[in-house]
Design a protein that fits this description.
By secondary structure, this protein is mainly alpha-helical. The chain has a three-stranded antiparallel beta sheet, with no helix packed on it.
Amino acid sequence: MSVIKNWPWFAALALLLAFLYAVMPILTPFLVSLLIAYMGDPLVDKLEERGLSRTLGVIVVFAVIVLILAGVLAFLVPLISKQLVKLYGMLPQMVDWVQHTAVPWLHTKLGVPSDILDGDKLKQAFSEHLDKTSGAAGFLLAKVTASGMALFGFVANFVLIPVVSFYLLRDWDILVDKVRGLLPRRGEGAVVKMAKECHEVLGAFIRGQLLVMLALGGIYATGLMLLGLDLGLLVGLLAGLASIVPYMGFAVGITAALLAGVFQFGFELYPLLGIVGVFALGQALEGMVLTPLLVGDRIGLHPVAVIFAIMAGGQLFGFTGVLLALPAAAVIMVLLRHVHEMYKDSDLYTEQSAADEYDEPAQGLSVTAEGEYCLIKQETQDSTQVVNAAE
């Protein structure tokens, strides 16, 4: 009956979801802006506590973010672009090495078929692609400029994200209060409690695992570059990004680094041991320093939940789904936690069958042994009788 009574609200919710699905292609900049505002709000709140106005606090936070991003990009972009161009040029050589060195070794040691890879066709495809694009930079430029609308969309997002982020961050507390004011009075407490739990789960993941990810990326990239690995920066940053899922960064990074090391150094022992040492050091620092310091014992997202959420979001909604994956996973985790508690308190879980009641031991009968005597205590509702019996 209550469902029929509240059908306008369900209809409005369905229309809202349909509208969001229809405008999904243009939601990406707004979701990125929402994430920036969510992450920047605690910093602005702290500046407000020190006496700054909300608007001035937002300007200060934006200035710091822009300076940090500008410095990081100015340092990393030239290095990464050089390594990408180098990797792009090395691909035919890598295919040749795999065809004439790795595959024969695998055929001799493990019996892998020697014709598993057609290296000539791959090298021909790489060569034709290089001739057409004149390097990785030309290939990227050709892709970007191939569509005027794509270029316009990129520029529009580049301008739109900071503007939307500024207004969302400035009015964040007002928007939160307005949303809370729209909640039904009867269910406000429960919804607010669940929202706080979602915030704790998602905040623990963002403040914890993402900081660990950045730290590990820096450690891996620095160590591999010091070892002289040509693709050290690229592999290190890739391993850091993959560390958004615990231990995946280690697996992806050490595999890619060893392959690049074998291609560059051959099977020399010391460079390969150095690569293993870099990743072993990173794992040790993560377990003993980074995770206890940055994550602690806060409840975050389970690694399996992170993997499934990202893959499902990307499969269903593309890049926008990837952006929504982690917040959605946090909400689902909190909901499942409440469903679990409701199930444990329900009659379905606590009710015992008649057979279980008959199998229970007799109440009030206990036997203890001490030396040669046995004390038997039999309790009833009216009296307690103690009998000492010798063996």
